[in-house]
C-alpha cells in the first residue's frame, strides 16, 4: 500500500467522508429516504451507469441519472401512495468497505469503495455488488454528497427491478 493511501485513510477529512458514506447506507437500509435525500447537495448527481467504464454519464445510457428533481420524484414514489417499488419493499443490508482515496482537499474528498447489498423480498434473497464513487463536499455546516456513481458489477446484463436504491 502506498504512503499516500495509508496517510489518506487516517486523514480526518477522509474519515468524515467515510462516515457520511456509511450514514447513507444506514439510512437506505432503514428506508429513511427523506433522510437519504437530505445528504445530497442541491446540484448533486446520483448515477448508475450501464457501461462500467464510462465517465461521461451525461451522454451515456444509465439505469439511473438523478439530479435533485429526479431524486425528489424517486423519494416520493418510495414514500407515498402505491408504487411497485415501495409495496412490500425489500429488506436490505449494505456492506460498504475497501475505501480508497482518489482526491482530498479541505473542501472535497473523493472516495472509491466496494458495496455488497443483500436484499430479501417475497421469500427470496438477492445480492448486488457495486463499485462506488462518492464525491463529498466538506463544510462546517455539514458534509454532503455531491456525486454518487454506483457501477453495478452486472450492469451490462439484464437487471430486474430492484425496488431499492443502490
Describe the structure.
There is one protein chain. The radius of gyration is 16 Å and the shape is globular. It contains four helices and six strands; from the N terminus they run H-H-H-E-E-H-E-E-E-E. A hairpin with a 3-residue loop joins strand 3 and strand 4. It has one domain: Nuclear Transport Factor 2, Chain: A, CATH 3.10.450. It has a six-stranded mixed beta sheet. It has 166 residues and is of the alpha+beta class.
The description of the largest β-sheet is: 6 strands, mixed
> Helicity, in percent?
25-40%
- The helix-and-strand class reads alpha+beta
- Gap between N and C termini: 29 Å
Strand content: 35-45%
Helix-strand layout with pairing:
Layout: H1 3-10, H2 12-29, H3 33-37, E1 40-49, E2 62-66, H4 68-79, E3 91-104, E4 108-121, E5 124-137, E6 144-152
Organism: Williamsia phyllosphaerae
Pfam family, one: Ring_hydroxyl_B
Protein name: Aromatic-ring-hydroxylating dioxygenase subunit beta
Briefly summarize what is shown:
The protein is α+β, with helices and mostly antiparallel strands and about 170 residues long. The protein is built from four helices and six strands; from the N terminus they run αααββαββββ. The longest helix has 18 residues, at about 10-30.
Amino acid at each position: 500500500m502506498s504512503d499516500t493511501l495509508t496517510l489518506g485513510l487516517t486523514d480526518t477529512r477522509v474519515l468524515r467522508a467515510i462516515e457520511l458514506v456509511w450514514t447513507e447506507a444506514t439510512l437506505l437500509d432503514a428506508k429513511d429516504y427523506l433522510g437519504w435525500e437530505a445528504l445530497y447537495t442541491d446540484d448533486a448527481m446520483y448515477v448508475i451507469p450501464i457501461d462500467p467504464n464510462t465517465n461521461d454519464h451525461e451522454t451515456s445510457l444509465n439505469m439511473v441519472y438523478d439530479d435533485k428533481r429526479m431524486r425528489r420524484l424517486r423519494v416520493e414514489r418510495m414514500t407515498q401512495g402505491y408504487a411497485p417499488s415501495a409495496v412490500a419493499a425489500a429488506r436490505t443490508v449494505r456492506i460498504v468497505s475497501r475505501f480508497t482515496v482518489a482526491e482530498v482537499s479541505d473542501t472535497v474528498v473523493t472516495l472509491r469503495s466496494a458495496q455488497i447489498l443483500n436484499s430479501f423480498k417475497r421469500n427470496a434473497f438477492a445480492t448486488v455488488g457495486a463499485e462506488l464513487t462518492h464525491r463529498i463536499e466538506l463544510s462546517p455546516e455539514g458534509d454532503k454528497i455531491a456525486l454518487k456513481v454506483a457501477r453495478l458489477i452486472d450492469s451490462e446484463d439484464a437487471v430486474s427491478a430492484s425496488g431499492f436504491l443502490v
